[in-house]
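Render DUF1330 domain-containing protein in 3D.
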Amino acid sequence: MEDIKFPDIKPGQGPVLMLNLIKFKDKRVYFEEYIPAFEEVVKQLGIDGVDVKVVSEVVANIIADDNDQWDEVVLVEYPSAEAFFSIAQSEVYHTIANPLRLAGTAELKLIMTRQINL
């Protein structure tokens, strides 16, 4: 992944939720090719617990810059930050899935979060 940051996150802190802000170049490639390829990568790496929680179409920007035009928001749970980083840094991801992600997205922002129990 280009420009991906690998912050120093304390290991063993449990699941993380990745907020994906997506602007599509080719929505079909993203959903019909990249997603299955990503699932294959996760399977090959033997990582359990990766779960898509929300896929949502953006209908309006309420408080956002005019440049912040996203097509969809996707929220994916990973069992840990380490699991996400092991996928993102893997040779298999960069060989199988990343070229399809690049073909399907015009722009992508990833924000790592952790659920807060109120």
